[in-house]
Amino acid sequence: MSTVEEAEKGVEMFSRYDLGGRLLTVNKAAPRGSPPQRVFEPSFRIYVGNLPWEVDNGRLEQVFSEHGKVIDARVVYDRETGRSRGFGFVTMASETEVNDAIAALDGQVRALGIV
Questions:
Q1: Containing structural domain, residue 17
Q2: 18, 15, 27, 105: which is closest to 63 by C-alpha?
Q3: Among 10, 64, 82, 99, which is least packed by CB within 10 angstroms?
Q4: Does this model's pTM top 0.85?
């Protein structure tokens, strides 16, 4: 970037930008030898384990959206086989929504509609 303002705008625009299913981490570069400056935003990410093999991203998002605004929902797949690894992550819009979703869904396989 040619100015500090452009760099700050780039960080703002592309931090957590979804690129090919992965959220980018974008920070300003620090001069050599100085510690990196990281901008940490609160994350409202939930680990979801023991998922039935049939659950995909859409179903995971659908179930959690009943408990708040879902920013992202991803089932983790094996790179070689393409099969679900049985877990995923859901990012909600707020801490309250995270807590509500956990309270409602923890241990609830039936909520996924695959029993």
A1: 1-41
A2: 105
A3: 82
A4: no
On whether both 68 and 27 belong to a single domain, the answer is no
Tell me: do 54 and 26 sit in the same domain: no
Place of tokens 């620090």: 30
Q: Write down how long the chain is.
A: 115
Distance, in Å, from the CA atom of 43 to the CA atom of 41, rounded to the nearest integer, reads 6
CA 111 to chain centroid, in Å, comes to 20
Residue 69 near residue 93, CB atoms below 8 Å: yes
Cα 61 to Cα 46: distance, rounded to the nearest angstrom: 12
Distance CA(74)–CA(20), nearest Å, equals 12
Percent of the chain with pLDDT over 70: 63
pLDDT in tens, 22-80: 666 666 666 667 666 665 556 788 999 889 889 999 999 999 999 999 999 999 999 89
